[in-house]
Design goal:
The chain is of the alpha+beta class and 584 residues long. Among the domains are: 137 residues, no CATH class; 138 residues, no CATH class. It has 21 helices and 18 strands. The strands form 4 sheets. It has a 9-stranded mixed β-sheet with strand order 7-6-5-8-9-15-12-11-10, with helices on both faces. It has a 4-stranded antiparallel β-sheet with strand order 4-16-17-18. Strand 1 and strand 2 form a beta hairpin. The radius of gyration is 31 Å and the shape is elongated.
Length: 584
């Protein structure tokens, strides 16, 4: 790297500005790339660049810091120093871009002021509201555990520099104590976020999208009563888990969540969630949208007793009842090519929306075909093994067939599998017998599904659009479990597990806010790609030795590439380009 002089003409006078530049190799030969502007190397002259001194203003989205005094004294003349260019040193390079964005979103949501009010400063070395910020920021930046945050990730980032914290004091013990402190404020956090969604999007909680997922543990978790074995959506039936019920708006903004035992059935969680949400926000004119896993008669009766509206996926067993309606060509309304819906009356105020999707039919047919091929191949393989080497352990053979049936449930339910025996009473083979009409019926209902509702809406297309918004909840779970590292859980104590999930919930709120921020700026909603681009932004300390014998030390932020600079400009995010002078 080297210092590059950049002359600028202002009012007929030429001023020398400086930039830290590096030489890179390209297909067209060596080229110079500016790492960071250093201005006039005068800390008093910061009119042109955004300064580290105005960190708070920049994070709040204000380009200029506090307005200066109208009658302030004239700035002192700069003291010029001659730099020994050959002795320039660059040290302490830290990741800056991602944590900068996370803090900007944190402040945009008002979570800095919320936690500062909920967790006032005491005798602790580092305020608990700042620890909450660090935990959520780290999870937003895809860090799995508090051990990884304190030991590996935090020292590589500029987060403590921006927050003005002593990095050595942010240790693992403080992280765990921070988890204990923030858990008590879960309800206040959810209420604050709901208020924010109302201010920004006019959200009135008329629609609630509700779904359940699971997250598994590493370890025995013997001290946590919520850690139980149950239906694993993570394909880890060998591990204990907890279930998380998440409520989101149709825009995908998280409103609240609850943690349930890992062996809790989805249908049993709905009543608890509805009760909690109605106690907080009332229940007038709200529609609950869930998938068919919640569609039990008990839940339907519960919602109707509370005069609540619902829109749910109906059990597939109802397809048999409405077989004639599906084959009747009248009354169908086309939503788009290959997708049609039809409204039929049920009992009382209930209505059913019949849906046919050609695209979904192809997908379901392909999935069933793959399972059939694999199931048949496994049964045939095991049958050949028994033919070559008969077994006297009949129970073991039957258990093996049972495990195959569990592995391929969509295929195995269409067959009866019998164990064949030789004259010695040994198991010598397996025979698959198709259940009459099962595969034929499966072919007829591919791509068909039913929705049930008690709302007053009579338009099946509109009801279908309401239901399809449930994908926002599914998308939130994908972000939580993929990008935001909800799984696996390494904590064993119940309150630590619940605090970990709260941090993941906060990071999901940051993620969704960033997506909407980008969308409002005309940049789409690919938050992941934007954060990947932000990894190129680093902070670094630059030491400039002078001919007079002492050195000038600056902390600077690298200059983004042209494309990223445009994105930041569109989002009105201004990086602190001006150098921060450090003590010598």
């Amino acid at each position: 790297m080297f210092l590059q002089r950049i002359p600028r003409n202002k009012g007929g006078e030429v001023y020398d500005y400086w930039a830290l530049t590096k030489t890179i190799r390209t297909a067209n030969g060596p080229r110079h790339r500016i790492v960071s502007y250093l201005g006039k190397l005068d800390p008093a002259d910061q009119d042109y660049y955004h300064s580290w001194d105005d960190i708070e203003a920049l994070l709040d989205g204000r380009r200029d810091g506090a307005q200066g005094d109208l009658f302030e004294k004239t700035k002192p003349l700069p003291e010029w120093r001659e730099i020994n260019v050959s002795g320039i040193e660059v040290n302490r390079v830290r990741e800056f871009g991602q944590v900068w964005v996370a803090l900007a979103v944190w402040r945009r949501l008002g979570l800095d002021k919320l936690f500062a009010g909920l967790m006032p400063e005491g005798r602790e070395d580092i305020r608990w509201d700042l620890i909450a910020c660090i935990l959520a920021t780290a999870k937003f930046c895809e860090q799995d555990t508090e051990n990884a945050i304190a030991g590996e990730w935090l020292p590589k980032t500029a987060l403590c520099d921006v927050l003005g914290l002593d990095e050595d004091k942010v240790n693992l013990t403080r992280m765990y104590r921070g988890l204990d402190e923030i858990l008590a404020h879960k309800d206040a956090v959810c209420a604050h976020l709901q208020s924010r969604w109302g201010e920004w999007f006019g959200t009135k909680l008329d629609f609630m999208l509700y779904d359940v997922t699971s997250s598994y543990f590493e370890g025995a978790c013997e001290l946590n009563p919520l850690a139980q074995r149950g239906y694993s959506r993570d394909n880890r039936p060998d591990c204990k888990q907890v279930c998380v019920g998440l409520v989101v708006t149709p825009d995908g903004m998280p409103v609240g969540y609850e943690v349930f035992a890992g062996n809790r059935a989805d249908t049993t969680t709905l009543q608890e969630i509805v009760t909690l949400m109605e106690e907080k926000y009332g229940h007038a004119n709200r529609v609950w949208v869930t998938d068919r896993g919640m569609s039990s008669e008990e839940n339907i009766a519960f919602l109707e007793a509370r005069e609540s509206f619902y829109l749910m996926g109906a059990p597939r067993s109802l397809l048999k009842r409405y077989e004639a309606e599906f084959h009747d060509g009248e009354g169908w309304q086309s939503i788009r090519e290959g997708l049609s819906v039809k409204l039929v009356k049920g009992g009382g105020n209930e209505k059913y929306v019949l849906c046919k999707s050609a695209e979904r039919a192809k997908k379901e047919q392909a999935m069933l075909q793959r399972q059939l091929e694999k199931f048949r191949a496994c049964i045939e393989k095991r049958s050949r093994q028994l033919a070559g080497k008969p077994s006297t352990k009949t129970q073991s053979v039957q258990q093996g067939v049972g495990r195959l049936s569990e592995r391929y449930p969509s295929a195995s339910k269409h067959f009866e599998c019998d164990v064949l025996f030789n004259e010695k009473g040994e198991a010598c083979g397996l025979a698959l017998n198709e259940k009459p009409g099962q595969l034929e019926w499966a072919g007829k209902i591919h791509g068909a599904y039913i929705l049930r509702t008690n709302t007053s809406c009579e338009d099946p297309a509109e009801l279908w659009r309401w239901y399809i918004q449930l994908t926002e909840a599914e998308s939130a779970f994908r972000d939580l479990k993929g990008d935001l590292a909800l799984r696996p859980i390494y904590h064993h104590l119940q309150h630590r597990v619940e605090a970990h999930i709260l941090v993941c919930f906060l990071s999901l709120c940051l993620w969704r806010t960033l997506e909407h921020w980008m969308g409002a700026s005309g940049l789409g909603d690919e938050a992941r790609q934007f954060l990947i681009e932000m990894r190129q932004i680093h902070s670094m300390d630059v030491r400039l030795p002078t001919r007079q014998g002492h050195a000038i030390n600056f902390r600077i932020v690298s200059k983004p590439e042209k494309e990223l600079a445009v994105l930041l400009s569109r989002m009105k995010l201004h990086l602190p380009y001006a150098p921060l002078k450090l003590k010598m």
